[in-house]
Amino acid sequence: MRENQNREQELYDAVVKLDVDAVKELTSDTFNLKHWSFKEWHELLCDSLNPLEKAIQMGNLNIVEILLQTPVGYQNSKKEFILDGIVFASFCGNKKILEALMNYFEGKIDNTYNIIESSLYSASEGGNVEIAKIFIEMKAQLNSFGESGKPLMIAAEKGHIDVVRLLVESGANVDKIEPRYDLDDSAVRLAVINEHWDIVEYLISFIKNSTDKRYAKRNLARIKDKLP
Question: What CATH number has the domain bearing residue 153?
Answer without folding.
Answer: 1.25.40.20
